[in-house]
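Structure ticket #2291
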Amino acid sequence: MPIKPIIGITMDWDEGFYRLNEAYVKAVMEAGGIPVGLPYAGEDDGERIINTINGLLLSGGGDINPILYGEEPLPRLGRVITERDEREIQWTIAAIQKKIPILAVCRGLQILNVALGGTVYQDLYAQKKRETLLHSQTSLRHETSHFVHLREDSKLYKIANTKKIAVNSFHHQAIKEAAKDLAIVGVASDGIVEAAEHKTLPFCLGVQWHPEALAVNGDPMSLALFRSFIAACRKEK
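Resolution: structure written out below.
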C-alpha cells in the first residue's frame, strides 16, 4: 500500500477555539491523505511546520486584513484575524519555495494570491461597478448555485474534463488583481475569478468555491480534485 501523505489544513479561530469544518477532514481522508490541523505557531516555527507536511490545504474562513496587500479597510470589510493571515502567508510562501503541493479553497485562494503579491476585493458588491451574481448562496452548503467556465489549457480543466462546472458559493471577497505568478483558469459568468493556478509549479491550485462540501456528498469532479491533490502530495514524499 502507498504511504499516505500528511496534509496540513489551516484552521479558523473564534474566542479561544480553533475551528475546522469536518468536510475538509473527510475529503482529505476519502482521497487518501492524513489530515492535520495547523495552529498559529510563532513565526520562528512556521518553516518547521511546513517541513512536517506533504501538502498544504488553505481552508476557507473570514476576511483578510487589507493592510497586508497595501490597502485600508472599507466599511463592508468583515472580521479579520491578522495572526491567521500572517501565518498562512508565511506557510504559503514556504510551501511554494519547497514545491509542496497546495490546494487553496475560497479564502485560501485569496491568501495564495496575496502571498504572491496580488490583491482582493474587500467586498464584491460594494466595489464592482457592474452587476454581479449572488456569490454567497442562500441554498444548502452541498448544493450548487452558479457556473464556472474553465480554461481548456489548465490543470483544473484536465481534472474536471469539461469547460463548464456547477459550484457552490459562499464569499463576498475575491481576487481583484491577480499575482503575476498565477494564471486565472476559471471565471463566473459575471467575470469574478473562480480558479487560479501557479504558472510553473506542478500542483498549486486555488478555487473560490467549496469543493470539500461537494466531495463529501459524492460530487465526482470535487472528489477528482482532492484525489489529484493527494496524488501530487504522494509524489513529493
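Closing remark: The mean pLDDT is 93.
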